[in-house]
Amino acid sequence: MIFDSGSTQSNLDCFLHCTTPTIKSHFLCKSEIRNLNRLWHPWEREKVEYFTLGDLWNCYDEWSAYGAGVPIGLNSNETLVQYYVPYLSAIQIFTSSREETESGDGERDSISDSYSDESELWRWDGCSSEEGGSDQDSLWHVNNRLGYLYFQYFERTTPYGRVPLMDKVSFMNYSK
To answer: Which InterPro entries does this entry report, sorted A to Z (predicted)?
Structure first.
């Protein structure tokens, strides 16, 4: 990877450029547009673009294996390539409708994390972001505009002890 030493791009700009995924978007069918949460889609728009989580994860596949190469400009006008491996720190997924749990008893599904006993991974019981049952939920209180919390994960392992992003995603997908 060659870095133009005459460039006025900062190392931070270069990092952001090299580590921001590019995802091809799709268009939602008109019949599905009516089902969207108003926060997610202003109803006056005729077309709605979206991407799937699978599309996003695919962008990180190679970076998880080898790292994302970022050219770093040094004070001596030399450059080197620094590699960064992506990790999952936290994720929350909201849906526009409440999903019934498989058991039907309103209990949330707990999945233990074989990589870290301190990690939290679960599917939520269908509470909306407004109805959440803990103090942490109230931090995310946005008058139910986000919809229903379907899934959340918070990694508590220090960054140096974490597994690469795609390994974590594969584990969570396999654990469902």
So the answer is: DUF789
Alpha-carbon distance of 159 to 171, in angstroms, equals: 17
CA 47 to chain centroid, in Å, comes to 24
Instruction: Give the mean pLDDT of 161-165.
Output: 90
CA distances from 61 to 30, 99, 104, 143, 166 (A): 32, 29, 35, 36, 6
Residue pointed to by tokens 């301190």? 118
Query: What SS3 string covers 36-72?
Result: CCCCCCCCCCCCCEECCHHHHHHHCHHHHHHCEEEEE
How far is residue 11's CA from residue 134's CA, in Å, rounded to a whole number?
A: 41
Q: What pLDDT, in 10s, does the model give residues 77-107?
A: 899 999 999 999 999 988 877 766 554 444 3
pTM for the predicted model, two decimal places: 0.61
Residues in the chain: 176
